[in-house]
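Running this now, will post back.
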Amino acid sequence: MRNFWALTRRELLSVFVSPLAYGTAALFMLLFGLFFIGQFAQYKLVQLQTVAEPLGHILPALAAPVLTMRLLAEERRLGTLEMLMTAPVTDFEVVLAKFCGVWLFYASVLALTFLHVAAMLWCYDGPVDWTGFALGYAGLLLIAGYFLAFGLLCSSFFESPILAALTAFVAGLFILLAGMILSRPVFTNPGVQQEILKFMLPYAHYSNLMRGVLDTRDLAYFGGAIGYAIFLATKSLESRKWR
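Update: finished.
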C-alpha cells in the first residue's frame, strides 16, 4: 500500500506540472463558465443541472484522451516503464496509481466549479437540495472515472500517445453518439435489446445520479466498468513480458 500511495503521488505531481493538463483544465473551466452564465441568467435555478448539464458528460469524453494519452504510452515509448517495473511494485499498482493520479487531478479541476455554486447561492435565497448536489457531483466524478479508465486502457495498447488519444477520442465519440441516438423519442418504449444497450452505456446511470436518485445498480455499473478497464490495462501491461 505504501508503494501504491507513492506512485499515486508521483503521477499526481506529474500531471500538475504538465502544460497540456493545465490547458485542458483551462478550457474545461472556460466552457463550464460560459454555459453556467447562460443557464443561470436564463433560469435562475439553484440546481446542479444549471452548472453541469450537458457539459458534465460531454467534457470528460473529450478531456480524458488528452489527460490519459501519455500515462502508459509515453512511458513505453521512452523506456521508463521498464525502469519502473524494476521497483518493488506490481503491474496492478502501477496502473491503479496512474488512474488515481489523473482522476484526482480531474476532481481538483471539477472542485473549481464550486465557485459557480457559491455564485448561485449568493444571488439566490431559498431551499437548496444539498443531497441532490452531492449525488450529482458523485455522478460527475464517476462518469469522468469511466472515460479516464477507458483512456488509460487505450494508452496501454500503444507506444504513441497520439494514437492512444485518437483511439480513446473515437471510442468516446461513438459512446456519446450511441447515447444520443438511444435518447431519441423513437426509443421511448424500447424493447429488451434497447434496454440492454442503454444499460451498457453510462448515461442512464449518470442521469439518475444527476437527478438525485441513488441506485446501487448505478454505483455498481460505474465501479464494474472502471475496475474492468483497469484490469484489462493491467493485463495489457503484463503482456509486454511475452513479446
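The chain is about 80% helix and 0% strand. More later if anyone needs it.
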